[in-house]
Amino acid sequence: MYLTKVEERMLGGEFGEAMSVAMKILVKVGEALGASRLIEVSHVHISGVSYSNIGEPGLEYLEKLASTKPKFSAYTTVNPSCVDLSLSSKIVSLEDWEKQAIINGILESMGSRTSYTCTPYLLRRPFMLEHLAWGESSAVAMANSFYGAFTNREGGPLTIAAAIAGRTYMAGLHLMSERRAKYVVKTPPLNNEAEASLLGLYIGERYSEITQITGASEWSHSIVKEFLAASAASGSHALVPLDGVTPRGTYVVEEGVERTTIDRRELEYYYDNVSKALELGEETLVYIGCPHLSLSELRQLSIMFDGRRLKRGVHFLVTVPGTYRAFRDIDRSLKKAGVEVAIGTCPIVSKITVKPDVVLTNSGKALFYLSKLHKFNVSLASLVDIVKLVSEK
Amino acid sequence: MISLRAKTIIEGECCGELFLINRRISFYGEVDPVAGEVRGVEGSFKGKVLAIRGTRGSTVGSYIVYSLKKHGAAPNCIVVEDAEPILIVGCIIAEIPLIKVEDFNELVKAFSLNFRRARLISGEGVLILE
Asked: B62 to chain A: nearest residue by CA?
């Protein structure tokens, strides 16, 4: 791989041991993937920071890394951690908060923002054609497919290396030659975010290569977010070009590709395969905020709950970015209704204290992981339908 | 003696008893980082040359490779058919040599014929099985 003079010195150890290890990670992975050089990145998003996920091995590595006191060279945000940062959640377990606090302290000492969110694009909007090094599959899909930025889907330790070096390897989706759609799929109009989730799961499961979606030009940011998170969960999709949404010039559709149409009946049939029917259980957990809610989405939810209260046996969990600690007023009106807003965390990367027999969510990604990891019975429905079912005047 | 063409991905000494698992493994979930054992496979690869087709699964796998080293249960060296980023990163942070052989089927064949000691001659890009 070609390295600049400065990069040679970074690799050689002139800028400390952590920099040298970081460069070695980028060069070796890059060489294995056929990269010809490194490229500077303007925003790194670190994944794999939850103690519930990375455990003692991850913590030990981070502690060793921190002992040499490295600093991040790029603007850096981090994924949700495994505890509610307000330490008040009754649904997300606080069991590992001491361990998580060590991890968060290490990352912040290196210079990460206290973001603790899977929606880094809400904190810093990616520019078109900009090179990023992001972990977190749903955010990667948004960066590539909504904003037209360039990033691969990176693993946890590699994102840390990229943050230290301020660079990543030039391969995969950083190259226009790799951003080529092999399929084009026409989708039916969607009525709500739950249908977007369902469609995302379906596309992710059915197509293993880059697939352009037509019929998406009217989709809102929220709809795109749910769709992409679902397709990234069920099918590891890092780029799903959306005709009319994804900036032109950030991907190409190959000539003579296979074109298909998905009709509503196909989706309805698929729904019965992946989702339980929408109904209350003896103990029900509602989970909203996967990916994390934006401030306006949180406000909409708050308005929906105006004058309403949760029915008995219903836990209602909402997750928002770590940076939303300041917005306690919205939080308070939801609290009155019995809704819990947990900050900077998410049940996919945490332990859960409640034992619901039914989980309701509007997120395809949450459905995918909560049924796979936590073995819950999950039903997919729109936020409006869920609120109607679980609350009363 | 059988010699296989090999490419060094992470440098270092690669010499010892071959421990073959003829498939891809997921370090996260399948490997016990204290014992150096793989679920469903008899024996430990600790201090041996671990030969696997490749890896799959969560990126937490990199940290498990590191953890093996911390617990003194790491293999001497890892030989693969396909080197995925998760494994490469794990081997760098754990300082475990990683070798890619051109023809993994030859290695499997040699192993079944009882050539079970491996030795890398890195200058020549050759892995010797004896």
From this structure: A157
